[in-house]
Amino acid sequence: ADPLMMGALIRQDKQTIYVGDAHQQIYEWRGALNAMKRLPYPQTLLTQSFRFGEPIAKIANVFLKALNENIPLKGNPNQSSILAKSLVYGTKDAILCRTNATAMSHLLDGLKLGHKVALQADSHRILRFCQGADSLRNGKSASGIPELAYFNHWQEVQEFSETGEGGDLKTWVKLIEEHGTTTITKAINSLTMPSHADYVVSTAHKSKGLEWNRVQISDDFLYDINSLAVKITPEELRLLYVACTRGKNLLDIHHISDLLHGLQHKKLILG
Fold first, then answer.
1. For the CA atoms of the chain, what is the radius of gyration?
2. What DSSP string runs through 175-186?
3. How far is CA 124 from the centre of its chain?
4. pLDDT digits 0-9 by tens, 58-78
């Protein structure tokens, strides 16, 4: 919750019950506060999930432990859940990604295979990026698009994406070089409604509060692993915690299996 909303709620002369999870604070970058840690009221803990069984709860607890949570989450004993690797064809209900660019990549891959795919990401931002890329290619400014505002032409974007600082742009550049902005724009404008789709592609941020039977975690989350330690930010841990608790029956953690192993067996460096 942002400070304005919290101030209005606290000042009202009514009984108020706050329900939430302090570890699902994933909008700090836009000014949200961790409301659950700021409220001066009595607290009652709900530690058992109604959504998923114990196998998924164990994955959630890996991230919670890394976030210094001492009270583990319990799975629903009446819910059958498994950890498994999804197949490409139709055995998932949602693919959860960190970025809009990776979500777009999954969408295009799915359409190429003939899948009916729904997209739950910042479609407007994706379209704006394509417009900015076209402007730079035509020698014009892309001043209205934050990611591209400081470049003078598309070649500069390509070169910057290959540097360590430009890693976030690399997927975008690859998408546009492989598919072109026309194909990406056409794909955005011809999406399948979620109720009629084979599966949904969503960013982890957009997935908060939602659930699917079978969830696949994508490979674009940020962390570094070496032989001794795992380096990851608390924000990324919280985002992964949210993503991995969206599934009910099946959770595919194949792409982050190295991270999970590292968090359980290696030194953790938060930063």
1. 20
2. HHHHHHHHHHHH
3. 17
4. 999 999 999 999 999 999 999
